[in-house]
Specification:
By secondary structure, the protein is an alpha/beta fold. Helices cover about 55% and strands about 10% of the residues. The chain has a 4-stranded parallel β-sheet, sandwiched between helices. Strand 1, helix 4 (about 70-80) and strand 2 form a beta-alpha-beta unit. Helix 6 packs across helix 7 (about 135-150). The protein is globular and about 60 Å long.
Length: about 230
């Protein structure tokens, strides 16, 4: 990685993402630190230097469209870079206040107080559209880890109006699932148009978990948005 760079090594070793490679190496070094700390210390220092070099070099050489889901949508809106030529917020927070209906709250409290995979599954089903089949098992495991190890915000406030007004200079697309309980289209659509001047689209048959409920539709929407920017 020091010789060829992280991205090149990621592709060479077949990792699906750069984050996957970083987490893998972090885990190996953490294990080594517990068994051979003297050997691991200089390796960790070299690893930190390699990551530092990655961060100091431009990760994206040219214009980029930033895509964020849920809280990631708020991050995408808050991020300011001259390379960003478009933003896509999928069920994006930060535009209007999130709704937390009573059934969703009833599933959330047990998930927070006594996290388990079963409680995470019950919560995820409340986030998804009615009639969805089995959700991917990794989602339940991930949600369980979130409840156990993170301080999560259930309903973050919208981003400041001043910041959203600045984002009007870059084309933005806001997407919602028809059955999103947090950000129903009837609330998110008008807020996106009013506060951001953004385009708004609804994906039928999906709830809040757009990337898992409707991956094909999401890909098509993002590709269409990018193509329009190029035109």
């Amino acid at each position: 990685m020091e010789k060829f760079g992280l991205s090149s090594h990621q592709r060479h070793r077949g990792f699906a993402s750069l984050a996957g490679l970083v987490h893998h190496v972090d885990g190996l070094i953490a294990h080594a630190s517990g068994t051979e700390p003297e050997w691991a210390a200089p390796v960790r220092a070299r690893w930190s230097a390699a990551l530092g070099a990655q961060r100091s070099s431009p990760a994206v050489p040219g214009p980029a469209v930033v895509v964020g889901h849920s809280l990631g949508g708020a991050v995408a809106l808050a991020c300011d870079s001259p390379r960003i030529v478009g933003r896509v917020a999928l069920s994006g927070a930060g535009i209007t206040r999130l709704r937390v209906p009573a059934p969703l709250l009833a599933a959330t409290v047990p998930w927070l107080l006594r996290p388990s995979v079963a409680r995470s599954t019950a919560l995820l089903r409340r986030m998804a559209a009615p009639g969805q089949g089995e959700l991917p098992g990794h989602l339940s495991s991930w949600m369980c880890l979130v409840a156990r190890h993170c301080r999560t915000s259930l309903a973050p406030p919208p981003l400041p109006s001043r910041l959203l007004e600045q984002r009007r200079t870059v084309p933005t697309l806001v997407v919602a699932g028809r059955f999103d309980p947090f950000l129903p289209p009837r609330a998110l659509g008008p807020a996106a148009r009013r506060r951001l001047g953004a385009e708004f689209q609804v994906i039928e048959g999906a709830g809040h978990l757009l990337l898992d409920e409707a991956p094909v539709e999401v890909s098509a929407v993002v590709e269409e948005f990018c193509a329009a920017l190029e035109d």
